[in-house]
Design goal:
Layout (H helix, E strand, L loop, with lengths): L7 H31 L31 E10 L8 E2 L3 E8 L1 E6 L4 E5 L3 E3 L6 E4 L6 E10 L6 E2 L1
Antiparallel strand pairs: 1-8, 2-9, 3-6, 3-8, 4-5, 4-7
């Protein structure tokens, strides 16, 4: 039989380390529990990024913002089924969200974008295009224009 003599100080150190380890686990448990409660999202706003880009929907880079006093325009646009908008262009950056229906946007060089409800659009700037509602319900969208005071946001051909 083989007997190992372990000094008492080593046993006391082992017990102390064990107590410290249990204390650390307990503190981590409490921190984790507190962290979970702090991230309760029931009282927070949820944010979905619908668009964040420096390009328009056709891949063209957006221009610099115009000089002058800024003027933001927010339009709610309704396009009845079967309606084809006239050829037009926007001299300012604009973007929006299709709330209801469907919308097709076509540039003068025949690039085409089909939008469905809930989808966003970052419009082409200084390019002739038109929109048409090929669906069976009114297309409804909200558009935001970053222009300047006294300057048009849409120019018809």
């Amino acid at each position: 039989m083989f007997v190992i003599n372990i000094p008492k100080t080593f046993l006391n150190l082992h017990k102390s380390i064990k107590k410290i380890r249990h204390t650390i686990f307990f503190v981590l448990f409490l921190l984790n529990f507190t962290n979970v409660s702090a991230h309760d999202t029931s009282n927070e706003a949820l944010v979905d990024v619908l668009a964040k880009t420096s390009l328009s929907w056709d891949g063209s880079p957006l221009p610099d913002y115009p000089r002058g006093a800024p003027q933001i325009s927010i339009l709610k646009i309704k396009i009845q089924p079967g309606v084809i908008l006239p050829l037009h262009q926007h001299p300012v950056i604009n973007a929006g969200v299709l709330l209801k229906g469907e919308l097709t946007v076509i540039t003068e060089d025949n690039k085409t974008l089909h939008l469905k409800a809930g989808e966003s659009i970052v419009e082409v700037v200084n390019k002739w295009h038109f929109g048409k509602n090929e669906g069976n319900e009114t297309a409804e969208l909200i558009m935001f224009y970053a222009g300047t005071e006294g300057a048009p946001i849409t120019v018809k051909k």
